[in-house]
Amino acid sequence: MKPNDTIETQDCRRISEILSRVGDKWSVLVVSYLGERTLRFSELRRRIGGISQKMLTSTLRNLERDGFVNRTVFPTTPPSVEYELTDLGRELLIPVQNLADWARQNADRIDRSREFYDRRREDA
What we know:
The chain is mainly alpha-helical. Helix content is 69%, strand content 11%. It is built from 5 helices and 3 strands, in the order ααβααββα. It has helices at residues 7-22, 25-36, 41-47, 53-65, 87-123, and strands spanning 39-40, 69-74, 80-85. Strands 1-3-2 form a 3-stranded antiparallel sheet. Strand 2 and strand 3 form a beta hairpin. Helix 2 (25-36) crosses helix 5 (87-123). The longest helix is centred in the C-terminal third of the chain and has 37 residues, at 87-123. The protein is globular.
């Protein structure tokens, strides 16, 4: 611990680091889809519109590194790879789904608020 660091500062950094991983849009989508069932890389990529192969690979590696996803390689030609949530990933699925549900339920309210804010700024 650095002399000027407090326990609270370290705790905030740790929480921020974890939330930045699990809270980015690609991780949320990957966890959501894997919450439905085990998927192959190509299936995930098809389901997640707009994600590049490189970004999906990076997201899956990070989720695997952090213990949220298991990667299984099958010795076929070409190799087949499947991804599934770990127990930790299934625990993460609960707040991810709750946040997604909240976003769906409040999207219209947020849109109205944005429109009101933008109109006010234009008038100023």
